[in-house]
Backbone:
RNA sequence: GGCGCGGUAGCCAAGUGGUAAGGCAGAGGUCUGCAAAACCUUUAUUCAGCGGUUCGAAUCCGCUCCGCGCCUCCA
């Protein structure tokens, strides 16, 4: 079954295939590094990660470029306030961004590129636009004239004919010919950083960096361009105007946009005090896997209500899957079973994988994909309970989880991921560190006491273990334990 | 004013014409010396409301109510 994705350009679900061979050329708008990224940013980056993984699962190779915006008004203002250069100011946030991504298991794009490494190309692009008659200069700054691009508005489906009453048209300090014209190259101003280029002393406008870097690395027509819904207008609309004016070709075939999330049913905003970074959530004791699971569990085009109850529910759901995996790996299984045969059970696993796949093929319907997995877990647990799950089907069942985790990636706790800052995670209180051998010895003593029907002693030993953060599970296959 | 989205069980949330997925919480049960953990079962005659189309609607159409987004920096 083919992958179908919702294209903002056409407002429809379309079958996706790359333009050239097997490689998907994808560009995503990365962070502006003037602060730590927040949970809303992470929703978008998680969506892009799921998209990456699903495209690869379906056999495509990726050439994915993500930009880092490291020159921009807020950065300039903050750097000036702190008496730092742009690079001095942005470097720590850039590093923090990659740490956050690693903690959430977000795959690194094939190329991560910075705006300040492409100033020359941007200035050249502005020159090209000037030569094509798409620009004008006002007070030293160069603007893009949207009247030169008749298709302006085709992405956001805004109609700019005539006056839009009620809209707050902000004609700022610069003298723009049309309120919607946007700046390509800002004239040098005061003490602000600037570059000396033929187009003039100054710095690039925001939108031009994405057009330039995307086309430099991926060619004139991308397969996919993605970002948050807020970028549809004006950022992506402007990217289209610039890029297509330069090349005369479609800039991107697919435009994918992820919805915003809300916090406890409210808009996330600094003034409401519900503005969370990953670090904030770690301090509250939530794990990266819980956060990733919650962010991934709601299809990307739906608003996601991000709540602390939701995070707890996500943690419990992951625990259920981990328990299931553990059971599958360690259970003693019969060679022969009555009732449902190996073939039927194999078909059940195949059906679960097929349902998982078709859900994600359908515009990345992660909620439906999860349902397929949990249904399989329940069915298989039942069969295991009945001692009717044969050894021959073990691998097939584990494969369902492997397929699931290739995309969701929440079954393994964080460990040695390069660049991973485990120190940022809230450490669970483990008052006393018992070695495995010590734990085993205490459990053996308890088992012996139980056998001797000395339940007082057995309960003492159990209490001691619980106190030290060890969870005892008496199963019919013997005692299992795990650290809490 | 323009464009667009949404209102499904206590909470989160699939489903866009064929008779309500899944997760969490709750309740009951299995297991156990008792527990815990784990697992199982169960939980919406109903999909904001009112009309309409249809053999049949949560799904299509109209109206009403409520919430939200973009049109301005923003994931």
Residues:
């Amino acid at each position: 079954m083919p992958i179908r994705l919702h294209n903002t350009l056409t407002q429809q679900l379309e079958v996706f295939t790359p333009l050239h061979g097997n490689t998907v050329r994808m560009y995503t708008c990365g962070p502006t590094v003037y602060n730590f990224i927040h949970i809303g940013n992470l929703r978008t980056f998680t969506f892009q990660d799921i998209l990456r993984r699903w495209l690869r699962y379906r056999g495509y190779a990726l050439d994915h470029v993500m930009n880092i915006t490291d020159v921009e008004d807020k950065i300039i203002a903050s750097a000036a306030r702190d008496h730092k250069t742009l690079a001095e100011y942005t470097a720590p946030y850039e590093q923090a961004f990659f740490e956050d991504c690693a903690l959430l298991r977000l795959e690194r794009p094939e190329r991560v590129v910075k705006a300040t490494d492409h100033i020359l190309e941007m200035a050249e692009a502005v020159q090209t636009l000037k030569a094509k008659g798409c620009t004008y200069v006002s007070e030293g700054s160069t603007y893009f004239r949207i009247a030169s691009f008749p298709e302006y508005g085709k992405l956001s489906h805004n109609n700019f004919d005539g006056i839009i009453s009620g809209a707050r048209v902000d004609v700022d300090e610069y003298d723009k010919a049309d309120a919607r014209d946007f700046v390509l190259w800002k004239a040098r101003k005061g003490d602000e950083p600037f570059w000396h280029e033929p187009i003039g002393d100054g710095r690039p406008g925001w939108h031009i960096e994405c057009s330039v870097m995307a086309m430099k690395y991926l060619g004139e027509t991308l397969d996919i361009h993605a970002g948050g819904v807020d970028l549809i207008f004006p950022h992506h609309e402007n990217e289209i105007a610039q890029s297509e004016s330069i090349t005369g070709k479609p800039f991107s075939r697919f435009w994918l946009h992820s919805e915003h999330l809300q916090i406890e049913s409210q808009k996330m905003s600094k003034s409401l005090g519900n503005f969370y970074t990953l670090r904030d959530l770690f301090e509250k004791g939530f794990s990266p896997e819980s956060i990733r699971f919650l962010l991934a569990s709601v299809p990307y085009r739906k608003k996601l209500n991000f709540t602390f109850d939701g995070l707890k529910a996500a943690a419990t759901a992951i625990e259920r899957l981990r328990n299931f995996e553990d059971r599958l790996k360690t259970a003693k299984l019969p060679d022969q079973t009555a009732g449902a045969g190996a073939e039927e059970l194999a078909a059940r696993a195949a059906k679960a994988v097929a349902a998982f796949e078709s859900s994600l093929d359908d515009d990345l319907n992660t909620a439906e994909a999860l349902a397929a997995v949990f249904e399989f877990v329940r069915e298989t647990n039942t069969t295991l309970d009945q001692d009717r799950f044969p050894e021959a089907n073990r691998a097939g069942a584990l494969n369902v989880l492997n397929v699931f985790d290739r995309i969701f990636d929440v079954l393994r706790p964080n460990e040695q991921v390069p660049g991973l800052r485990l120190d940022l995670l809230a450490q669970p209180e483990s008052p006393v560190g018992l070695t495995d051998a010590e734990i085993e010895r205490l459990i053996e003593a308890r088992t012996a006491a139980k056998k001797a029907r000395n339940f007082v002693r057995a309960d003492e030993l159990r209490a001691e273990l619980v106190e030290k953060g060890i969870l005892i599970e008496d199963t019919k296959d013997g005692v299992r334990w795990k650290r809490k």
